[in-house]
Design a protein that fits this description.
This protein has 140 residues and is an alpha/beta fold. The strands form 2 sheets. A 3-stranded parallel β-sheet has the order 1-2-5. A two-stranded antiparallel ribbon has the order 3-4. Helix 2 packs parallel to helix 3 and helix 3 crosses helix 4. The longest helix is centred in the middle third of the chain and has 18 residues. It starts with 12 loop residues before the first strand and ends in a 7-residue tail after the last helix.
Length: 140
């Protein structure tokens, strides 16, 4: 299920990667749900670029809900890991913004849902991906 995020709204956009069985279907959900630019490259690097830039969005703040994240891309664990790493990089980029007046909330909020029985497994998967996305010492 995708709830579209029309320009100018602050309504959450819901992505359900568990309902697709490949990366292309997941890219399609992001493309449709977030109204990605026509220049979107249909790969993980392009999705990462779009989520970390956000100049193409006409709203100040955006919420993306990833439904049943524990069951994302059920046929391909490597692709699921790339999805999680992409989301973690974007989340890290937009977790807050520093400016001369202080710190503001980021423009992008990512929310992952799962059923209660899957919380520990999802946390382990995300923790593993988080370790892989940590910048090397001395790099931002």
């Amino acid at each position: 299920m995708i709830h579209s995020c029309w320009p100018g709204s602050r309504a959450p956009c819901t992505i359900s990667p568990s309902r697709t069985h490949d990366a292309d279907g997941t890219f399609q959900q992001f493309y449709d749900g977030l109204k990605l630019p026509d220049s979107f490259g249909w790969n993980w690097d392009a999705l990462s670029d779009c989520l970390r830039d956000l100049r193409w969005l006409s709203v100040d703040h955006h919420v993306v809900v990833i439904e049943a994240a524990d069951r994302a891309l059920p046929d391909d664990a490597a692709e699921r890991r790339l999805l999680f790493e992409t989301l973690l990089w974007a989340g890290r980029r937009w977790s807050f913004t520093r400016n001369p007046e202080g710190v503001e909330s980021g423009r992008l909020v990512l929310v992952m849902t799962c059923d209660t029985a899957s919380v520990a497994s999802l946390k382990d998967q995300l923790r593993s991906c988080l370790d892989a996305t940590r910048p090397a010492p001395g790099r931002p």
